[in-house]
Amino acid sequence: MDSIAIISDIHGNITALEAVLADIQQRGITRIFCLGDIVGKGPNSDLALDIVKEHCELIIMGNWDDLMTRESEYTAAKWHQQVMGKARLDYLGSLSFSIEFMMSGKYIRLFHASPRSLYERVQPWDDYDKRISLFESSELCAEPKQADVVGYGDIHNAYLQNLEGKILFNVGSVGNPLDLTQASYVIMEGEYGALSLAPLNIQFIRVPYDIELAIQQAVDVDMPMLEPYMKELRTAKYRGLKD
What we know:
The protein has eight helices and ten strands. By secondary structure, it is an alpha/beta fold. It has a single domain, classed as 4-Layer Sandwich (Purple Acid Phosphatase, chain A, domain 2), CATH 3.60.21.10. Strands 3-2-1-9-10 form a five-stranded mixed beta sheet. A five-stranded mixed beta sheet has the order 4-5-6-8-7, with no helix packed on it. A hairpin with a 2-residue loop joins strand 7 and strand 8 (166-170). Helix 7 (211-220) runs antiparallel to helix 8. The longest helix is centred in the N-terminal third of the chain and has 13 residues, at 14-26. The chain is globular, with a radius of gyration of 17 Å. 41% of the residues are buried. The mean pLDDT is 96. One of its GO terms (molecular function) is phosphatase activity.
């Protein structure tokens, strides 16, 4: 049986990323896919990108990765762009939209937010029609076919649902979880590339990490938007929510 670790939404938090990679390594998993949003929010976008490039076999683009490749008037965005430098920004702009493959007789499609956009946000409590639409293809996807299993990132909220016999899951966030204060990733186990039905397993892993160290790293570099970042890491509550 083959194992794939799927990570997403690191957001420049290398303390959380290193904890997750250590957990993956001690499980003996060597194939890692990343679903984007490597950069932004946290203080170490440059190092996060370098580490992801070193360890991940496949990497796709997230909305923050895309935003960082564009000119911006916002001070925080400019700060993160300056941290990364031109070569890393150019690399972000070259990333693909989706990862698609067969596993245990199921067509798997992984993307950042939806099959239609990097910016379409779909939560587990959204309307059924919106959630089931995530199995459709679009001109951005690699193949014009419905998926049997869909995994994505973006919302920082790990979950799994069975919809009409199809499996929908969100891997949660490594560096900025908004469901509980531990880094999140997924392990998929099955027969990689197999066209015939075989056992398929999806396992959610939560990894504790040193949140105060991650915050101190942001303090040390006088990162903009520091207070909202600290709140999210310590409480797992989205900065846009009122207390």
